[in-house]
Amino acid sequence: MAFEFRLPDIGEGLEDAEIVSWYVSPGDVVERDQSLLEVLTDKASSELPSPVAGKVLKLSGQEGDRIKVGDVLIEIEEPLTTPPQENSLEEDSEIEESKPERDNSRIEEQKSFITVAPKVKASPATRKLARELTVDISSISGTGSSGRITNDDVRLAAKSDNTSSLSPSPIDSEQTSSFLPERSNLGFMEAGEHKVKGVRGVIAKNMSAAWAEIPHIHSLDEVDASLLIDFRNRLKKVARQGASKITPLSIIAAATVRALKKYPMMNGHVVGNPAEKIIIPPSVNLGIAVASDSGLLVPVISEANSIDIFELAEKISELVELAREHKITVEQMQGATFTITNYGALGGRWALPVISLGQAGILGVGKIEDRPVAVEGKVEARPTLPIVLGADHRLIDGDVAEAFKNSIMNDLLEPLNLLVTE
Predict the structure, then answer these.
(1) Pick the catalytic residue: 194, 216, 269, 393?
(2) 171 or 107: whose pLDDT is higher?
(3) Alpha-carbon dihedral 13, 294, 327, 69, rounded to 10 degrees
(4) May I ask the CATH class of domain 198-419?
């Protein structure tokens, strides 16, 4: 009897999900709790484990397809657990005579059937390519989403005996928790047509809508970050939980939260197109853009206005790590009232970031590095931080935007302000 595994409701109000990647193919033998596939809902990807052990009979849907909650995803043939009963008493002698051989045969069959397949994350096409190139797919470190093995990983493994070198090395960055080490397949896509799907499909849809609906204005400035760096170094030595997580990004986030409390219009948003009403939320829910190998993800620190800089730093570190590992949930990426994006961690200085729908602004921060600064009539090399504020001109005029940006800059010039309880 085949077991039908149906798409569960993995998020409140979920109606359907996109199949991002299959990790198994028909004929594969899987164990209970082994990951079967990755699905995407509202920018959050989830791996669905098998509730039973058995042999994969059929997959319902291809990568990129959307499937509704309750629909069959996969059919799995479960192994028999008890041998069939013999009905004829007259055949007892024959049964007894052949029983050891038959039992041994069944035991071997069961052993063969429930042998655990390696937990290799790869699509059927990638598995086929590995077979064609005679590559042991279980020995490869995947560079795709959640460690998934890609076609490029297989091709590289075919050219090199040292497949362990395929795993990207971590790079520590003090500027931000959202830094993404450069990958060997960064920016690569094979020639030909590709369906816009997965996280990239969601990003494309949301950015198109945001750019079409929101009239953006941007204001660019630069801050002497000397005291910011000194403040960071001092706080990291404080014997307090969360102090070790302090980075320039968390300090910028704390200054932004203070400014949002002073200027709640920047924490609001416009509803309707054309505009119908303005919503000013009672709390600050801060989004932090994170570069992942599948696209930009934005985990949210809810009620950031009610926590201090140490707890804020700890929450940023925790959520960013979850986003990197694709363990972030739908709920942890909902409800942002304002977003910070740190392209400086990737080496950038200036950019004009796009405001997300349901928000009135976004703060972009560039790379901190030594640049010429005028100090008391003399030019000195000082660490400087480029910042860009994007605002929705339907709600925010230049005076509010500049006052908000100046509030952030003043706190970064004198970070001790961030330790004052308001």
Answers:
(1) 393
(2) 107
(3) 30
(4) alpha beta
